[in-house]
Amino acid sequence: MSVSPVVERPVMFQTWRDLTFLHWRYPAPVVQSMLPPGLTVETHDGAAWIGLVPFVMAGVRAPFVPAVPWLSRFPETNVRTYVRGPDGRSGIWFFSLDAARLAPVVVARLTYALPYHWSQMDVRIDGPRHTYRSRRHQHSDRRCDATVQVGRPIPEPSALETFLTARFRLYTVWRGGLVAADAQHGPWPLRTGELENLDQNLLEAGGLPTPSGDPLVHTSAGVLVRVSGWRRVTNDS
């Protein structure tokens, strides 16, 4: 079972709120072919998994700096898979991240080398109904519209639910080399979810085949997060 690392010197504080996790099975060789050298796709029950995760980013700030209300809160949606690095550590590889604030998009691209896109986005919380809307500014046909009903609490996540959500490291490629950052947070307060509507092509925009079948759906009120800086990844780091 994955355990959150302790990030003693965070470079960023964040709160991830009102999340929906949508996951589909994919053939592992298909996903592996899209990963950079050094990363190996992780599987569960013989399949790779692709996640589409819309949520609200809140309380974004650097150490010793207060959060600026307009800049520190905005919707975000990511497309991701689950990998193992050359150091044997499990983590996340992002195919894309959409965010509704231009400044964080630019900063994340420059400092974290993550594939962020500036998008027009909206998240509406109406009791147990969560509605997410997203359109990229440069490519308005690239979208994610979803409506989800939040369900019952999951007090003890299954092995698959833990595999899909207990992830505390992210990988990217920076200046030709693989780097990683850690995210410290508590256990997800997971709930079930019922998908009422989904109209998306962000997976396809990221180069993935169109998913087949209905996704697994989970929701969460969110967690507080401490994010570390990048470090180079080697076979023993």
TrEMBL record:
SUPFAM superfamilies: Acetoacetate decarboxylase-like
Superkingdom of the organism of origin: Bacteria
InterPro entries noted in UniProt: ADC_dom_sf, DUF2071
Protein name: DUF2071 domain-containing protein
Lineage: Bacteria, Bacillati, Actinomycetota, Actinomycetes, Micromonosporales
